[in-house]
Every structure is written in C-alpha cells, then in structure tokens.
Amino acid sequence: MALKFFQKKGYAALAVVSLLAGCSASSSLHAPKLSTPTSSAATATPDISKFVQRGEASKYAREFHGKRTASGEIHRKDALTAAHRTLPFSSYVRVTNLANGKQVVVRINDRGPFHGRRIIDLSPAAAKAIGLKGVGRVEIRGLKKK
Fold this sequence. Notes:
The protein is an alpha/beta fold. It is 22% helix and 25% strand. It has helices at 2-27, 124-129, and strands spanning 52-59, 81-83, 92-97, 103-110, 118-122, 136-142. A hairpin with a 5-residue loop joins β3 (92-97) and β4.
C-alpha cells in the first residue's frame, strides 16, 4: 500500500526525502579547525638580517607597471620594490650595485626573477637609484625589521 502511495504521489516526496538525506549527510562533515597563533612570534616576519647574496640583478620591464604582483599589490614603477624568489613579502633588503657602490633599500613584494642566474628584479625607480641599466652585479643584504 505504501508503495502505491509513492508511485502515485511519491516522486516529489521521494525527491524531498533524498534531498534532506543528502543535506544531513553533508552537515556531518566538518571543516578542520584552524589553529590561531597564541604568540606574536608565530606571526612575526622572519629575521633576514643575516641574509647575504651576490649575483645578477635586472629591472622590471615597463609592461609590468599597474599589474598585480605575487603579494597581491599593484606594481608601481616609481616605488622602491623588488622581486625575489624566496625572501618573505614585506621584508627589506639593501641592494648594492657592485660596479659603482650605489645602494638602495627595497621592499620585497613579488616573486622572481625567473631568467637565468638573476637573483632580484628591481622596480625601475630602484634600478635608477643605483644606476642599474639592463643587468648588473649586485649584493643583497637583509635588513632587520624594526
């Protein structure tokens, strides 16, 4: 008798029952709890003050101006920023042009460069500040965050 009831009126009821069963099954799945840091050390920017690297540097091409960087901010050609493959975002480094001794402090806000042996890509303003035209040899020194 119950079978005849569902055959006559039951397709809609069966769909509702199936839907409710599916909702209750998915509600039993819980997303993993994210732990919140309990100390400021867990969220602090790593100390890169002992970081030193020498190699080739280049400057960003003009077409990157106004595009989004890997950190999510917009690249500005007039900002003193740079791209490095591994240094943490928002860390500061002093870049010294080994050809003329000029220095500039830049903030890391992007990933790269991905060309040959280059170790850093400088914004046009940073490259200009140290007299870098094209590719040149530099030394990078990490700065302690204040």
